[in-house]
Amino acid sequence: MSDIARTWAAAQDAPTSKAKDVLKELAQWADAEGEVWVLVGVLAMACQCTDRTIQRSLAALKGAGLIIETGRQHEMRGGRQVPIYRLPLEQGHGNLMQRIRAEAAAEASAPMGDSGVTHSEGDGCHGCHPTGDSGVTPMGDSGVTQIGNRITKGYKPTASARERDAALKAWSEKAPERVSPELVERAWADAEARSGLTGERMLGAVLTAVARDPDFGRGKAMNLHRWLDEGRFVAWLTEGPIASATPVSAWDGPAEVEAAVVSTLGAAGVASYLRSAGWDGDRRTVMAATSIAGQRLRDGAGQALKAIGVRVEIAAAGSARHG
Fold it and tell me: 245 vs 104, 149, 208, 211, 317, CA distance in Å?
């Protein structure tokens, strides 16, 4: 149990009151690093709700970035696997008092408009009267930003922003609980800067993944911002139009290696991590293109690969593939 995790959870805004209950219960079981695994049934009993409500709350928390899937599983007696999550303790306010002080400071430093200005009627100036909108941007649906239809005033979005919003809309049509506009905005900008790709190419990768990735059909789509942060869009880049719903999963190494990855990570795992990897036939080693890809292959498919005598290493920059 971690006091840091409990005080952090209490200070966060969750999508729903039930999701907040689930977040606080997860924090009760988290370790000092914020990692936690809890059976759905235990959460349901603690929060006095059904297993289905817990599953919906977990999905909402993932979409809001309040819990992060580590990709690892805790194996219980009998072989049952329970997913391990991480609470992002480094994000948001650390506790309620910190949040209260920050919000009070922000309110105190906010512009006061014309409240501090005294107009002299004798100088021809007239006292200010409230206008129809008081200069405040309309809040629409309770202040929630509408995906693909952001409310702006006197602002023309850039091409990259339009393509990002189109990506948000496409992803949310199939997995609305996996989209957090604020987190995606940052992740999109970072991904463009790292890759040097245009917003058009990035959008093409998103549309291809949404159409072809079988995880969307199984209800296992990732959070869009995490998908961008981990560079998974590289596997879905295409110059041409989307031709079919078949996932991109080409791999030029042994078929048994691909089969092992598919059995544990699915076809999407091949497309995201194995497709760009090299193969060292002499050492029966998969040479992952990035450290993230290598870690995902080890965590998700390590046992299946080990069973066929295959290792996973990170390829050195500029290293060649071996047959």
Answer: 51, 28, 9, 6, 33
Domains of the chain by range and CATH?
Answer: 3-86 (1.10.10.10), 159-236 (no CATH), 255-314 (no CATH)
Residues 6+ apart with CB under 8 A from 41: 51
Strand order of the sheet with strand 278-280? 278-280, 285-288, 311-314
CB 69 within 8 A of CB 85: yes
Query: Which residue in this structure is represented by tokens 């991590």?
Result: 273
Helix (H, G, I), strand (E, B) or coil at 277: coil
- Kindly state the tokens that stand for 59: 């999905």
Angle of helix 40-47 relative to helix 17-29, nearest 10 degrees, comes to: 120
Per-residue confidence band for 155, with pLDDT thresholds at 50, 70 and 90: very low
Mean pLDDT within 76-98: 86
Residues 182 and 154: their CA atoms lie apart, in Å, by 21
What is the token pair recorded at 144?
Answer: 């929630």
* Torsion from C-alpha of 309, 313, 316, 321, nearest 10 degrees: 30
Determine what percent of the chain is predicted with pLDDT higher than 90.
Answer: 24
Is the pLDDT higher at 277 or at 158?
277
Instruction: Give the relative orientation of helices 181-195 and 159-174 as an angle to the nearest 10 degrees.
Output: 120
Alpha carbons 203 and 210: distance in angstroms, whole number: 11
Q: pLDDT class for 250, splitting at 50, 70, 90? A: low
Kindly state the average pLDDT of the residues 219-228.
85
Tokens matching residue 99: 């949040």
**Contact at 8 Å (CB) between 297 and 312?**
yes
Residue 146 — φ and ψ, nearest 5°? -85, 125
